[in-house]
Amino acid sequence: MLKFGIQNGLNVARLGLTEDQILTACSLADKTGYHSIWYMDHSNVPQWSNAIVNDPWVMLAGIAAVTNNVELGTCVTDALRRHPSNIALASITLDRLSKGRGTLGIGAGEAQNLKEFNIPFDKPVSKFEEQLQVIKHLYDSDPDNRKTWEGKYYQLTEACLQAKSVRQPHVPIYMASGGPRTLKMTGKYGDGWLPIGYTPELFEDHKNQIVDSMNENGRTEEEKQDFQMALDIDVYFSDDAETSWAKMKEAIKVSLFKPEVLRVHGLKDIEGFDFKKYFTEYSMSNQDWIVKMREAATTIPDKIARSSVGVGTPDDVIEVFEKFLKAGVNHYVIRFWGSNYFGSIDQFANKVIPYFKDQDK
Q1: Rounded to an integer, what distance in angstroms lies between the CA atom of residue 314 and that of residue 321?
Q2: Which terminus of the chain has a smaller tally of CB atoms within 10 A, N or C?
Q3: Which residue segment(s) compose the domain that 126 sits in?
Q4: What is the reported pTM?
Q5: How many structural domains is the chain composed of?
Q6: What region holds the Luciferase-like domain (predicted)?
């Protein structure tokens, strides 16, 4: 089944919506046919001084109380700021509060959430993998089945949790991944994939890498069938698509500018731009890196950048979504941009979701 969800991320933070407004928007999405609601996990976004940035797990608990149907998850929690026992228990608690609608969205993290708080950003992928292993161990624990773990980064000694998720065998794990190593990990450990900043061509390329990993790791046919190939995608409804695109294209190109996009589209590397340093040193308050990124990202052709977002009328959005559908997406997680957040949720539910439902008949 094709699914549609909304993401309460940078789009909502930038608007400065209050908690009550966010809960109202989520209630609207629940009543109008969406399948999931997601909440970002950031410490701050200081480039927007009026933004409101809340804890995702607390907000999702509140959203659970005003919804009945949608799945609920983080988009995404980063593995380096919390101990795996905390993440495991938070996701189980959310699942129990929501009566079986909880989901864990998780990634390796990024320097922008860590640097100013003096949290080390070292060996993020290795820590991410070990954290996944520990979380799965703890999902399976109880007082009669205690877990000991002697890892490089985490240790458990006869540890257990004392709550079981409603969803079995455990809360579904959606992984944010985009490099060869983390894509392999997604095929090995994940129940879903939730990337951001993708073109249809890159999505299909990475989806195939995940499927290869699932086969290599002996995942069952049922696991492969149920696997969610999700995508965090931007949508901006507008009667004047060209004007709206001109306003947002710089930000879209920045979100797309990564080695894998350059590779898949045959674009040249930018001389002097060090991706590794960018991802390990960048923070929201570091203006030097922000300027470097914007300058480098301008080299992405408009046609490629525009293929990654839905801008314009519902028909324009449908055209983009159809290309991603062909690339393998089966769960869209939408960040609605623009000042009319409630109107966008409603318009998408009334114009776009029915179109794809009709295609399934």
Answers
A1: 10
A2: C
A3: 3-242+310-360
A4: 0.95
A5: 1
A6: 22-331
